[in-house]
Design goal:
By secondary structure, this protein is α+β, with helices and mostly antiparallel strands. It folds into two domains: 99 residues, TonB (TolA/TonB C-terminal domain, 2-Layer Sandwich), CATH 3.30.2420; 81 residues. It contains six helices and nine strands. The strands form three sheets. Strands 6-9-7-8 form a four-stranded mixed beta sheet. A hairpin with a 4-residue loop joins strand 1 and strand 2. Helix 2 packs antiparallel against helix 3. The N terminus is likely disordered.
Length: 188
């Protein structure tokens, strides 16, 4: 498998060699959060930009159904130190998916289950338009409280702006989960 960037290329094996030593640290990010939130599960996809010298220039969460900003950021920060072979042809850009499985299942909701609440709160969540391609994954407990959430977009989200968004989401009351927790992924 060949992963091509806009200008440069890295092979799948070169990507694996760069990331493999750091994957236990990424796993530790998930395991630490799963001790208090064992329901968290999903796929996290990171976008990497690798300079000609093999250093990671930027790493950001481009897709996530994990629903935990803490895990998303920790994994991003750990894997940002990856060192790769020099890409052939210049800077390389690629995406790398990771999957984390929860320790127990949750009720899965369709986006329509939270659309009314999120639409009503839109002005409190965003000062203007939401970031392009923004997707929020959140977990709701029986009382309708958001207990965990994460976000991803087509471009890197500023951590402070994401924190403000997540804080605003915590103030919204949703329909309560029928079981212990419900999970929903909502595209804006």
């Amino acid at each position: 498998m060949q992963v091509s960037g806009l200008l440069g290329q890295l092979s799948d094996s070169e990507i694996q060699r760069g990331l493999h030593p750091l994957l236990p640290k990424a796993r530790a990010c998930y395991d630490a959060q799963a001790k208090t939130q064992p329901f968290i599960s999903g796929q996290l996809t990171l976008s990497f930009s690798v300079a000609q010298d093999g250093q990671s220039e930027s790493v950001f969460v481009v897709q996530s159904t994990l629903g935990s900003a803490a895990v998303e950021r920790c994994v991003r920060d750990e894997l940002a130190s990856a060192r790769f072979s020099s890409p052939r042809g210049g800077k390389a850009i690629f995406q790398y998916p990771l999957r984390f499985d929860g320790r127990f299942s949750v009720e899965n909701w369709q986006p329509a289950m939270v659309r009314q609440e999120l639409t009503a709160a839109r002005a409190k969540l965003f000062s203007g338009e939401p970031p392009s391609g923004l997707v929020i994954t959140l977990y709701v407990d029986r009382r309708g409280r958001m207990v965990s959430a994460g976000a991803a977009a087509e471009a890197a989200l500023d951590d402070d702006a994401a924190d403000a968004l997540l804080a605003a989401l915590k103030r919204i009351r949703f329909v309560g989960a029928h079981g212990r927790y419900a999970k929903v992924t909502y595209p804006w």
